Amino acid sequence: MKTIVGLGEILIDKFPDYDKPGGAPCNVMYNLARLGHRAYLVSATGQDDAAGVLRDFLHEQQLSQKYLQYVNAPSGTVGVSFEGEEARYDIHENVAWDALARSEVLAMLARQTDA
Fold first, then answer.
1. Mind listing the pLDDT tens digit for each residue in 72-112?
2. What is the mean pLDDT of residues 26-44?
């Protein structure tokens, strides 16, 4: 079992008919945890309704929130639309995971990380 860290976004993909929690680092950590690794997401959410949805998702998926920061910015979202069969992504900027702050806790995690 390895300790693996995903650094980056957790967000809500906003499809035309539904919303779905995700973000590449979050998705990878989810799958690595299912494979039996100690998988930690290092990211940030805002202090808004979307943050509650994202944190509930992590809890339901039994993913650690130990390295998730609360910041004073909106939680990340991506608008997903379709032109025929082609997906189009509208990535909203200046969101919570953009404001991820370095900390001694994260530095300590980095020293214990395999990947």
1. 999 999 999 999 999 999 999 999 999 999 999 999 999 99
2. 95
Tokens of residue 14, six digits:
């906003």
Q: Name residue, tokens 């390295």.
A: 67
Helices (DSSP H) in the chain: which residue ranges?
24-34, 49-60, 104-111
Contact criterion met (CB below 8 Å) for 22 and 12: yes
Token pair listed for 22:
């995700």
Residue 15's pLDDT is: 95
Handedness of CA 9, 60, 20, 114 (dihedral sign): positive
Strand duo 38-45 + 3-7: pairing: parallel
- Predicted TM-score of the model (pTM): 0.88
The pLDDT value recorded for residue 27 is: 94
